[in-house]
Amino acid sequence: MHMLRRLSRPTFPVRRRLSTHANAAPETWATIAEVSPLSPSTSALELELESSLTFEPGQWVDLYIPAIDQVGGYSITSLPAELPRLSLAVKASAHPPAAWCTRDARAGDRVALRVGGSFVLRDTPAALYVAGGVGINPLYSMLRAHCDRAPPRRAALLYTAQRHDELLFTAQLSRLAQRLPGHTRFRLGATREPSSAAAPPLPGAGRLDGRIGDAALEEALRWLGCEPNEVREGSAVPWMAESVAREPGTASEACAEGVCAYVCGPPRMTDEICATLRRMGVGQVHAERWW
Question: Contact 212/158 with Cβ under 8 angstroms?
């Protein structure tokens, strides 16, 4: 995932990343402990750090590979509590660092790292996560950290890839949903395959058909406790928490205050979903584009 950080517009932060520390010294070296497939096009790299490093869920690392001039930038999929083990997910491409990670990297190889990014988890009682393709990578770390907080927090996930076999972390997401059945609502699907082509639904998770649209977003926000007021002249007024109890409990805060949305995916998808969430009245919308 290569993005250039920038503030897209004042209403919500949307960042595109490219490795911006190409001339900066790395913070630490690491040894690759394992390389394994996550999907037909994406590999997981398990790294063992050689010295201390700190990061927040949602951040990424610049990856310096000996003998390769370009610097790669990849989201961290593990949690800070799992250090000194650190995990990355890299999608295959012609970009030399990504090609090396998915084709040539072997256990025992050494790489250098530098942490970057401000797309990080906030402390809110409920959160909506929307991912497209490998946009799940930073959200996976954020979602796990969110669900580990006490008391339990509500989390809704909408996640699509082009094909069902390109959906990442499905087994882990299923286990998380089963561990917190009253506080999680996960919906997964493919945009270029019918739901009939998918394997049976994952325990604890439901299916999405096609692209993530207004209906899926509205349904997830309602589950989180948000309720739309009437729409006047084509412009929605802020959503408010419904005053009646709904699973997993009684919502008590305005959507604009109590729900944070995180979006990561291709540029067009990210822009469209962020605009829709803002129109629906979600006050905290944070996003990062990949390409």
Answer: yes
Backbone angles phi, psi at 36, to 5 degrees: -145, 155
Cα separation, 82 vs 123, in Å, equals 20
Angle at 49 between CA 104 and CA 117, to 5 degrees: 85
Q: How far apart are CA 199 and CA 59, in angstroms?
A: 32
| 286 burial level (CB within 10 Å; 0-12, 13-18, 19+) | buried
Pairing verdict, β 126-132 and 110-116: unpaired
| The model's pTM | 0.84
Nearest one of 121, 2, 111 to 66, comparing CA atoms: 111
pLDDT by residue for the chain (291 residues), tens only, comes to 333 222 233 334 444 444 444 556 778 999 999 999 999 999 999 999 999 999 999 999 999 999 899 999 999 999 999 999 999 999 999 999 999 999 999 999 999 999 999 999 999 999 999 999 999 999 999 999 999 998 889 999 999 999 999 999 999 999 999 999 999 999 999 998 876 666 666 788 888 888 999 999 999 999 998 865 433 333 444 444 443 333 333 333 446 567 999 999 999 999 999 999 998 888 899 999 865
Contact criterion met (CB below 8 Å) for 242 and 225: yes
C-beta separation of 62 from 114 below 8 A: yes
